[in-house]
Write a structure and sequence with these properties.
This protein is an all-alpha fold and 195 residues long. It has one domain. 72% of the residues lie in helices and 0% in strands. The longest helix is centred in the last third of the chain and has 33 residues.
Length: 195
């Protein structure tokens, strides 16, 4: 079983590395649109996570929880599409490529699979809580800090001022998660902005 898992991980890692080598030229307007679309995706996933965090979505109303998770999944599923576009920019800096590679490793298993777990089990508070915790942890410590690097690097790669790239908003749970861990990731040299 461990061998099969290791082979699967190596195959996926090989595909990700190969996919990231294919370079594509996009216009400045394209890159701005990709980042803005991704920012909309982030905000919509944040809305779902924030509603769960403040208790607006619970297993007591499984239909509403599953519907909201489906909506979040729609936006979360677009994030890897935008990632492949930005990760393929020929002049992307090393820091931008590192962020893209980190993101490629976490989207499927950490965000999308967990949203599917919520959709499939909206009455099971243990599954829902574990899934939301998993999503929040990976977004607060990996996805959103990586976007703080990837979006400005993408702007720079096509000749746009990286300071004009939007900074992603962090979901409300990040404040609590950062406090519990005793750390605060940096976003463009500043503490991240929490919605």
């Amino acid at each position: 079983m461990k061998t099969k898992f290791a082979i699967t991980v190596l195959a996926v890692s090989s595909q990700i590395t190969s996919a990231s080598i294919i370079k594509r030229d996009f216009s400045q307007a394209d890159v701005q649109n990709f980042v803005n679309t991704w920012n909309t995706d982030v905000q919509n996933v944040n809305n779902f996570l924030d509603d769960v965090f403040i208790g607006g979505l619970t297993t007591a109303n499984p239909g509403a929880l599953a519907d909201a998770a489906r909506n979040a999944l729609t936006f979360a599923s677009d994030e890897p599409v935008e990632l492949m576009r930005l990760g393929s920019l020929p002049n992307l800096s090393g820091q931008g490529m590192d962020a893209a590679m980190n993101l490629m490793m976490v989207f499927g298993s950490q965000v999308i699979d967990n949203l599917n777990n919520i959709i499939s089990n909206p009455t099971d508070s243990t599954i829902v809580n574990n899934a939301v915790t998993g999503i929040n942890n990976v977004r607060c410590f990996n996805v959103l800090p990586d976007l703080c690097n990837l979006w400005p690097a993408s702007f720079s790669a096509v000749g746009l001022d990286p300071a004009t790239a939007p900074a992603p908003l962090f979901e409300k749970a990040c404040t609590q998660i950062f406090a519990a861990a005793g750390v605060t990731p940096q976003c463009e040299g500043k503490a991240p902005v929490v919605a």
